Amino acid sequence: MQNGKPRFKFAGHAKGFTAHFNRLDDTEGLNHAVPMLGECVLPEGGDRREHRLPEPYRFNVEAPRSRRLVAIDDLHACAEGRELNGRFVTEVSVTLTGLEVVEMLHIDSVQLHMRSSRTKSSDPAVESDGCHIVGMRLGKVEAEVILDDEVLPSASTGQQFADAHGRRGKELAKYGDHYRSSIVSRIQLRGEERDQAGMCVDGNVIIWRGFGRIILGEIHVKDHERRVTMLRLAMGSAAGGTATGADGQSNGQPITP
What we know:
globular, 10-stranded antiparallel β-sheet, single chain, mainly beta
């Protein structure tokens, strides 16, 4: 609105997958980069941004040897900001299927969905139509990831997020102005004992000797800003590098021009 009256400024993004490899085997200093796939960023006035892979994605390299570093069968990302019956709604979603990383980690499906709605004078209400990580396999070991459906709706504000964690006795870390937690309730590894050698679970993190760290369902909250990253990789063994999959953020707010 004009004449100094408040208007709503949408802010949000949905990002599908990206990765960067700086080491393979014993070869250091590499620069194998998977570009951001499925990046949807909202303009301030709201709109709908959507991206789908036109075909399955494969990222192969020849140095230091022929190898497939990333495979994705399908990816759909969407970010939307709209006004609906006096409420301002920001919605982000990512669906990622058939993911494979360095021919070791396989995930059938990763899904993120987050919707935040508010008026110009109220705190946001946060909800989800469903997040999941299903069909995860670490070599021959299956990893069942069980999510906590009560964490995301408590992320209306940083203080409400902290209060909800306190009432439930759930661990919550603070880094500067950000609270960090996880929407993961439990991770269960299933497989032969010999195949699980070198694997352990620490909260929402799987530590896998020979691969690195697999961080699942991270959530960061600051004031009215919330960000969920369903998959983050800190690789440091057969391959060195980082990767992020199914990431979404929202932080719309009223402003006075």
